[in-house]
């Protein structure tokens, strides 16, 4: 039986502003979909992985749109739970000329925020070789935090590689202290931990990639890959393998959101296909560069032929 990848999180409706300016001043938006784990699911599916997404959605237009997109992309919807009492979350995102866009959430009390350990009790983890989670999901509620802990335990019990991206969203947490405690605790239990350099500065007060990796390996993580933006990424593991991978040149920054999710999709796809750690990280850097040159959180994620052409330096890499 071919094993697949399991992602658990909150996909949402996304309204992207069609003009530069403050959200309250924008006259029109384009509706699409978003969510950190959802972006990784799309990225890995396009590269050929068998992907299952586990979440809760409301019986509403956003939920229906997300399910349709998953099916059209090839992501399994078998583990989606539909709620009659809670809505699907959504968010607004600015269009910017430079820098990170402003965002505003409508996700409090969402269906996904009610995820709990009971929701994953019946999952057959023997079907998966990788389980991926971000720090956004445990930020949603106390029951989501309990679910994240159970997810980690079940992944380990069943021999799955547990991948964790902190994806810090301070506005979703009850306090900064709770965020740091929970994220660092989950990082210590991860097989692959994927912090950004700015995130690590918040979490452990360190901004030097080698020291960041060493701190988390000493805490219990097996492999740490530190994202250093346009410069690339640094990786290290418990066996002593380490190195720096340069980033890929970017012609124009269109949208920075989703770059880290694209990076994760590239790394995890590489690892499950047997690539070396450095090769997997290089693939992650390539997709991260592609993402910042693309509008939307997941619209620009590449297919295999596009990724290969981009990594080879072909200027006509896009289909």
UniProtKB/TrEMBL annotation:
<protein>
    <submittedName>
        <fullName>Sugar kinase</fullName>
    </submittedName>
</protein>
<keyword id="KW-0808">Transferase</keyword>
<dbReference type="GO" id="GO:0016301">
    <property type="term" value="F:kinase activity"/>
</dbReference>
<dbReference type="InterPro" id="IPR050306">
    <property type="entry name" value="PfkB_Carbo_kinase"/>
</dbReference>
<comment type="similarity">
    <text>Belongs to the carbohydrate kinase PfkB family.</text>
</comment>
<dbReference type="Pfam" id="PF00294">
    <property type="entry name" value="PfkB"/>
</dbReference>
<keyword id="KW-0418">Kinase</keyword>
<dbReference type="GO" id="GO:0005524">
    <property type="term" value="F:ATP binding"/>
</dbReference>
<feature type="domain" description="Carbohydrate kinase PfkB">
    <location>
        <begin position="5"/>
        <end position="302"/>
    </location>
</feature>
<dbReference type="InterPro" id="IPR011611">
    <property type="entry name" value="PfkB_dom"/>
</dbReference>
<keyword id="KW-0067">ATP-binding</keyword>
<keyword id="KW-0547">Nucleotide-binding</keyword>
<dbReference type="InterPro" id="IPR002173">
    <property type="entry name" value="Carboh/pur_kinase_PfkB_CS"/>
</dbReference>
<dbReference type="InterPro" id="IPR029056">
    <property type="entry name" value="Ribokinase-like"/>
</dbReference>
